[in-house]
Amino acid sequence: MSLHVFANFVTPFGTAANNRAETEGNITTLQKLLWQGETHSTVSAEAIRFALRRRLGAAEKTNRVWDEALRSNVWQDHQFKGWASEKGVTFVDDDLLGYMIAEAAKEDGSDDGKGSATVRRAVLEITRAVSLTPWAGDVTFNAASPGATPSAQKKGSNPVPYGTEVHATRYQYGIALTPDRLRDKTRAAKAIDALCNLGTVAGNHGRFLFDFSPDAVVLRVTQDPAPRLLYCFDTTDDGKTVVSPKLLQRLAAEDLDPKELIVGVSDLECKLAADLKARQVPVYGVKKACEEAVKRITAELKIKG
Length: 305
Hints:
This protein is α+β, with helices and mostly antiparallel strands. Helices cover 19% and strands 28% of the residues.
């Protein structure tokens, strides 16, 4: 039996724009998908991983580091040589998020016409973030002042009009982590701590803040290999508050053991907290919930210090 850590996060309510989608004419669009028959905006798991890697860098050295001056990634070991031996130096981001080097087949036939790939599968898996409420089609009109950037209008004195799709909402996403697959098992706790303290994620969020730190989180530390709690959050009042009927149903069906769950909420008096407390689920503030999860993971893995 292996230890598994699962979690589902939901962000505070905020205004999102330009989640790395394509533009259509002079409109910057949101990424969208159909979710239970309605159009929702979405943020990719890759964008969350990028932000997480930067948070992990505060805990220990990462292999890939974003250089703001160069506007590019800088590698410490781009061939991942540390993984060749059991005692080699490895990095927290490679250990948790995996890596891949794909080599195309050489035309001279020296490799029998076959390419090669060096791959480490991610131990920490992250779902795509999906908006808690459907996107209603909001678009804002904007105008950049002439010469606002070197690439903006270079002639004339008129403002440059453009539109932006926006979505006032919350986002939810989930994770799965199997600490036994890590080279260094202490990194499991560092991952949970980084996710509970995630700030900005993706696109225009880099310029206009959208807080991706959890407003509510449910964590599960278990021997069960299935998460059973992904996308468990919902809302009945357009995102003002968060509820979780799916989680309550799972508890009522005894598919989830309340002793395996840890819930963190920013409002300890909210309905979500009351519903879960009534089912013997421990409820804390978000930071305290993170500390409790780290404590349980460390104890289960028998990590000292």
